[in-house]
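Researcher: Last one for today. Full complex below.
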Amino acid sequence: MYFSVDRTEDFEVRGERPSVEVMDMNKLEKGNNQNSIMLKVDKVAKSFGGLKAVDECCLEVRQGTITGLIGPNGAGKTTLFNIITGHYKPDKGEIYFEGEPIHGLAPHQIFSKKIYRTFQITREFAQMTVLENLMLVPGGQIGEKIWNTWLRPFAVKAQEKEIRDKALEVLEFVELIHLKDEYAGSLSGGQKKLLELARSMMADPKIVLLDEPGAGINPTLMRKLMDNIQTLCHEKGITFLLIEHDMDLVMNLCEPIIVMSEGKKLAEGCADEIKSDPRVLEAYLGGQYR
Amino acid sequence: MEELARISAYLVSLAIMAGIYSVFCLGLNIQWGYTGLFNIGIAGFFCIGAYTSALITTPKPTGVYARYVHQLFGLDMPFIVGLIGAAIVCGIVAYLIGIPTLRLREDYLAIATLGIAETIRLIFNNEQWLANGPRGLMGLPQPLSWLVDPKHYNYVYLAIVLTVVLIIYLLIERAIRSPWGRVLRAIREDEISAAMSGKDIFKFKMQALVLGSMIMGIGGALYAHYTRAISPSVFTPLYGTFIIWVMLMAGGSGNNKGAILGAFVVWGIWIGTKFMTDMLPYTLKARAPYIRFLFIGILLEIILIYRPQGLLGEEKRVSKLVE
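Model: Here's the assembly. Have a good evening.
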């Protein structure tokens, strides 16, 4: 009696177990992804003369999130981006990416860790075509070694074809394909923002740092941009950290949101928490919402 | 008939010099046209290339000559070794100049190269032991001179120069059309953005500086074996640097075909104005060179104002390996 009951229970359990396990695993993995810290900024400081642009700032970006970074002008957001991506060396403090220290590396070394950034004022290569702007980005191109261009022309050509095809695919995705042979400098402001996003996709990044992706672009393009960011995050698992002043964009897109003020992290939380945090209102929204 | 032969001989000598200048233009085009490196010390590489090849290809003077001609060494090697040696030595010098200057902003490179070019010329002028000081070196060998009568040797040399131009052109085109050239253009457009796209800016700028200077070294060597006698007074900023810039600007910076075209057009104009000033009365003739300098300067101004892209201009797409 006992035996058989046990057995049936056993069977039932066995029958269900796989699905339960799979579900658990899924949850676990997702939970893990959401929780594991991808980028950690630890007590980073940077001064310009007497001005403390970033002042012992600590913050973390978790994998798989679209993290928003907001704060009043001069809060040190862009400076922090410049420090993370190697354009400035921090006066002190440490930055870890996936557990590895990356502070003090040169920009091209940061790129090789699969961190990509865009700029507040777009920095496209104006006198190069849109397609070439994209084809430049992928790392490890054998044709970037000059002797390979002479000694291994076929390998270079084959790889070039691959890169070209990938670039066309990306242009298709961001809907700039009809402009592929135009000079990047002749695009409109909004199209340049899309181009920046497209370039970041060419890098196969793990994390993309976007500096005001929505600044100065019309609402239609803005929606397109937001959709693209969401698609990339959910389908390709790319993590985003973005600076933005457009509150609609930030509140709809970002979770969590980090608020910086005077070079420090002031608050962190979901959109509702941030909206109702009195310190944030004080520092950032200028108090007019009180 | 005699007249025709004289004209064709003259045109050949003109084409040889234009061909040699094309080599310099191709070298400068890598540095300025594609990478945006402001090298205004071409004369320095011109000088080093010429002297290196001279020292490699001439024998060290012996006997009574040794008292009058001082040179550091004389290897008595063939012409081709001279060309390669000139390229290598210029490459090394460019590398040494690049280490401190390429990390700085572009105008510092300009000042540094300008100063270094003049320094190099003065070293060759003042250091008697190195390459015979202001009197320079003479009797450089001419390659393949046994082929024809010395009277017609220039035709052979023209063929050699044009072959060298063609080889350099093809090698550069291949590299520029590849991802390597794309990175150079990106650096010219926006260094910071190129760095953010994972490119080691310093490395690529160094490669462009060194490769361009090596080509200039070859140009210097070609010049030395053409005139067969060199002295420091040749490598002045006007003939060694300025005119090459005018050629590149006129032909089309960022276009290798334009670089070659510019060399031929500007050299043609330069020689053409000499014809014209030769017709002036004797008293004015002495001052004529200055009018020609002025003329070339005005030409540059006109190009920069009315056709800044040059005769051919830059092609829209640089990467043409795959269509």
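The beta strands of chain B are 137-138, 229-230. The CA atoms of residues 9 and 154 of chain B lie 8 Å apart.
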